[in-house]
Amino acid sequence: MLASFFMNEFDIIKQYFTTDSGRKDVVMGPGDDCALLQVPPQTLLAVSTDTLVSGVHFFADMDPVALGHKALAVNLSDLAAMGADPRWVSLALTLPRVDEAWIKGFCAGFFELAEYYNVALVGGDMTRGPLSITVSVKGTLPEGKGLRRSGAKVGDGIYVTGTLGDAALGLKQALGELSVPEPYREFVRNKLEHPHPRILVGQALRDIASSALDISDGLAGDLNHILAASGVRAQLDLESLPLSEAMTASVTQEQAWQLALNGGDDYELCFTVPGVHRGQLETALSHCGVKFTQIGRIGFGEPGLELLNNGKPYSMPLHGWDHFRGAS
């Protein structure tokens, strides 16, 4: 059985994963021991790697087209958070068995997004075992232009793109923990399964934002990474959190805030901007076609997050996603 899997491996790679992206900076792509890539002069290389595991990051029966999209999208979101230009990707697939229909669907979702952002698949691996997907994306930045988590200063505004908590709402719907009204079910499912990396926003923020990251593990937990790295405190206005119509139609205000702050899989950007750049921010992001909202400000005090409701302190449990919470 094992020998049969590996006999088929190279045929699968040749048929489904060996593509010509047309990128001239790919000197050698799939098919040799290493990829050879031409990195432009006076640029920095940005690299990010994520693993998605069946039963942990996605349902085992998730549509493979959606899974292919999401596997690449969540990695591209990291490049967006740095303001990088996506260029190359490598992919390692662990499959329990050869299922060509599944592989074809996965590739359809993966390569559609790769083509949209002109990203070339340059290598990877395939093996047998419990279903998991490891993606490593590579991008480039002009020297000195990378966005970082450090850099937020007192007086900066705190902003997010899009709306928050919709993917978490979609997950609760899928788990049967709550019922989303029928008109919004497809919307929240798409938010969970088809995130859109904010590549253009990240690039537009290079000369504007003082810090940035993508929201993958919940706004509260991720924003705290900025606060810790920058050594600053934040005041967050709960009433300013951008909530979708699907969210407000499905849960109470308190529940909506909980999902927006603690829910994962948003893949929106959170960033800080000095007040003097507010006009520049509005102009730059108007060309990206992405909604953005100021949700708070950087203030004085020990690093940490302070919640306000109509200007008054408000207490609520805050926690980001942690794979090892509760593990012995």
Q: Supply the number of helical segments.
A: 10
Total number of distinct structural domains? 2
Using only CA atoms, what is the Rg?
21 Å
CATH class of the largest domain: Alpha Beta
What kind of sheet is the major sheet?
7 strands, mixed
Which sequence of strands runs across the widest sheet? 8-10-7-11-9-12-13
In round numbers, the mean pLDDT is 90
Sequence stretches where pLDDT stays below 50 over 5 or more residues? 1-7, 323-328
- Please identify the structural class as seen in this structure: alpha+beta
Could you say which overall geometry the principal axes of the C-alpha atoms support?
globular
- CATH topology category name of the largest domain: Phosphoribosyl-aminoimidazole Synthetase, Chain A, domain 2
Q: What would CATH call the architecture of the largest domain? A: Alpha-Beta Complex
Q: Describe it for me?
A:
This protein is α+β, with helices and mostly antiparallel strands. The chain folds into two domains: 2-142, PurM-like, N-terminal domain (60s Ribosomal Protein L30, Chain: A), CATH 3.30.1330; 157-310, Alpha-Beta Complex (Phosphoribosyl-aminoimidazole Synthetase, Chain A, domain 2). It is 36% helix and 26% strand. The protein has helices at 2-17, 64-82, 100-116, 166-175, 182-193, 199-204, 219-230, 245-250, 253-262, 278-286, and strands spanning 26-28, 36-37, 43-53, 85-95, 120-128, 132-142, 157-161, 211-215, 233-237, 268-273, 292-299, 304-309, 312-313. It has a seven-stranded mixed β-sheet. A four-stranded mixed β-sheet has the order 3-6-4-5. A two-stranded antiparallel sheet has the order 1-2. The relative contact order is 0.15. Mean pLDDT is 90; it is low at 1-7 and 323-328. Catalyzes the ATP-dependent phosphorylation of thiamine-monophosphate (TMP) to form thiamine-pyrophosphate (TPP), the active form of vitamin B1. Residues 31-139 form the PurM-like N-terminal domain. InterPro entries: PurM-like_C_dom (IPR010918), PurM-like_C_sf (IPR036676), PurM-like_N (IPR016188), PurM-like_N_sf (IPR036921), ThiL-like (IPR006283).
